[in-house]
Amino acid sequence: MSAAVFAALAEALKSDSEFIADMQALALGRTPTAVPKVLEGNRRFDQLGQEHYPCWLIEPGDSQGASASNDGGDLNGLVLNSTQQDWLDEIDISLVWHQQDYPRALTQRKGIVPAVVRLLLRNPGLGDASLIYAVGVLNDRSYRHPTHVQTLTLRAHTTIDRDPD
Questions:
Q1: What is the pLDDT of residue 72?
Q2: What sign has the CA pseudo-torsion 138, 60, 75, 131?
Q3: Backbone angles phi, psi at 135, to 5 degrees
Q4: End-to-end CA distance of the chain
Q5: What is the pLDDT of residues 2-28, one digit of tens each?
Q6: Range of the domain at 134
Q7: Looking at the domain assignment, is residue 133 inside a domain?
Q8: Burial, 55: exposed, middle or buried (Cβ in 10 Å; 0-12, 13-18, 19+)?
């Protein structure tokens, strides 16, 4: 997992002005201008207090050797030589918020994925990633109502060099 990608993603979730406007338009918090905090490390949702809502939880997911191109370098899609290897990291980001009203929560859930995708399209090379993009979403479907969770899986392509600078 690239620490630079992780840090840049956390910063973008907190500071990208268009993304902040998208989050504020969803009215996820107790105040109309609430912006989700960013908490590193996955935590049990039932252990988050009201003071944390709304918040993003960021956790490294699975990783594997990968190709930086669409076609791949060999049959396994690896690009590997004596000085570097391309790597594919997954990052799970979960938005956790509290909303009593079912229709409003549904409207909020429908707006999260487009906001994150637009953020990544504006910032395709966060940190040292050559590309970062969303590949899926897990929706809690109001299972924890009135607490809601939506988890997106992101993929970041990076290159690991033999001799870091």
A1: 47
A2: positive
A3: -120, -10
A4: 17
A5: 899 999 999 999 999 999 999 999 999
A6: 3-60+90-155
A7: yes
A8: buried
How many domains does one find in the chain?
1
Look up the CATH number of the domain holding residue 12.
3.30.70
- Decide: pTM greater than 0.90: no
Q: What is the DSSP string of 81-141?
A: -SSEEEEEEEEEEEEEEE---HHHHHHHHHHHHHHHHHHHHH-TT-TT-SEEEEEEEEE-T
Q: Is residue 37 part of a domain?
A: yes
Distances (CA, A) of 165 to 80, 81, 84, 128, 138: 19, 18, 13, 12, 37
Q: Is 68 part of a structural domain of the chain?
A: no
- Are 158 and 58 spatial neighbours (Cβ–Cβ below 8 Å)? no
Do residues 154 and 134 lie in contact, with contact meaning Cβ atoms separated by under 8 Å?
Answer: yes
| 142 is a domain residue | yes
